[in-house]
UniProtKB/TrEMBL annotation:
Residues 52-237, 271-410 form the Pyrrolo-quinoline quinone repeat domain. It comes from Natrinema ejinorense. SMART domains: PQQ (SM00564). This is Transcriptional regulator.
Length: 433
């Protein structure tokens, strides 16, 4: 892939920041998801979710606090409903928070006041943790919102729990459809690990990406009818092992899929028909090692598809001093699978934010290189690749974008071989206009 030379590379996004208090300092290795951010209420609110469950809504312009609540678990995901009609009851905006913790709670809060409207504990379905460590806790991994044919908004969520008994490893997961009042419309339970959800623009089809499949469920992508939860079709990269899909993204009747199984990107048509596939960070021999990187994120819009890759790993060992030539990169393709542009993101991207033709990548550390210049929020134009960068002292671990407003979470980091703490726990808010 050819690099894109970009004269706008150092243009600032004119961020302002507000401290979020204390958090355990991150180290060289990546930590679990500890923070979340959302731009809500038509761009008027910036809502942050913190590691201790604190959820705070701030005015997007002044950054003054509008309300603060305590979520039952670690607040690791946020989505928003702008207002809909449910059972004849007109509702205003709602902020929905996903948790990782004892209950795996999903809770909805009034966007204006912070009053809790409803709560649902996913642990009632997927079970409680069998071991007192973060990785075993019930975890709501994805939230997705959309509007049905009658104009009513719906919330979709995916929750999972992991357990291990000796050499036996198991996942328990449930995908949910909620009405705005918190009532459950349908559920879909499996023994695989979901990683991503996406709803088509018509609100008719919900794509569920499964990352780890080691039980009876043995397919990486399931497309469900959004109204009923019935399965419409399945697709899988057809690779060996339990690694399958990293992300999914609708664009009209097509779905972009990043594959952890073969480290490629796919564009699928109706029924899972393969339109094209591209090599992203496939297994590559460098001297005496075979290296690869996972394609972690996919985003499709208006006939273009972007994929973002992650860390380098070696087939023989997870430790390597070398780097895959396509690690930590964003690459965009046209409707026929031809490369439009590519660029580096440099650090690990926990979650890609997108709005129309904009991509926002919160870039954390490159743990093999440990270069503080990788700590940044990077913006890309999906069509041209034009970019801007806001460098942070700490690592960027979450981002959201709505209209011209972008928000990002910074967490402090101390590399194991330096002994110096860089950055702070803060939310940054800026404008892309």
């Amino acid at each position: 892939m050819a690099d894109t030379a970009d004269t706008e590379r150092d243009r600032s996004l004119e961020f302002r920041s507000v401290p979020l208090g204390e958090i355990e300092t991150a180290r060289s290795r990546h930590m679990w998801t500890r923070s979340a951010v959302e731009v809500a209420a038509s761009g008027n609110l910036v809502v942050t979710g913190e590691w201790d469950g604190t959820v705070t809504a701030r005015d997007a312009d002044s950054l003054e606090v509008r309300w603060t609540v305590e979520h039952p678990d670690h607040a690791v995901g946020i989505a928003s409903l702008e207002g809909s009609v449910a059972d004849g009851d007109e509702r205003g905006g709602t902020v929905v928070v996903a948790g990782r913790g004892d209950t795996g709670a999903i809770a909805a809060y009034d966007a204006a006041t912070g009053d809790r409207r409803w709560r649902y504990d996913t642990a009632d379905d997927i079970g409680e943790a069998v071991k007192d460590t973060v990785f075993y806790l019930p975890y709501v991994v994805s939230l997705e919102t959309g509007t049905d044919a009658d104009g009513n908004e719906r919330l979709y969520a995916a929750a999972r729990r992991y357990e291990r008994d000796g050499e036996t490893r198991r996942w328990h997961s449930t995908v949910y459809a909620f009405d705005p009042d918190g009532s459950v419309r349908w559920t879909d339970e499996t023994d695989a690990s979901p990683i991503a959800l996406d709803l088509d623009d018509d609100g008719e089809r919900l794509a569920v990406g499964y990352n780890r499949c080691m039980g009876d469920h043995d397919t990486g992508l399931v497309v469900l009818e959004a109204e009923s939860g019935d399965t419409l079709w399945n697709w899988d990269p057809g690779t060996e092992g339990d690694r399958r899909v990293g992300d999914v993204s609708f664009d009209g009747k097509s779905i972009a899929v990043s594959s952890h199984g073969d480290k490629r990107g796919y564009l699928l048509g109706p029924g899972g028909a393969e339109r094209w596939r591209v090599d992203l960070a496939v297994e590559t021999e460098l001297e005496d090692e075979t290296l690869y990187a996972y394609p972690n994120h996919a985003y499709a819009n208006d006939g273009r598809v972007a994929f973002v890759t992650g860390n380098t790993y070696a087939i023989e060992s997870r430790e390597t001093e070398r780097r895959h030539p396509h690690e930590h990169r964003v690459a965009a393709f046209d409707a026929d699978g031809a490369l439009l542009w590519d660029d580096e993101v440099r650090g690990f991207v926990h979650g890609l934010a997108a709005d129309g033709g904009r991509l926002v990548a919160p870039c954390a550390q490159n743990f093999r290189v440990r270069d503080p210049d990788t700590h940044a929020v990077r913006w890309f134009d999906l069509e041209s690749g034009a970019s801007a960068t806001e460098h942070l002292d700490g690592i960027a671990t979450a981002a959201a974008v709505e209209g011209g407003t972008v928000a990002a979470i910074e967490e402090p980091v101390a590399y194991h071989d330096e002994g110096e703490t860089r950055g702070e726990y803060a939310v940054w808010v800026g404008s892309l206009e």
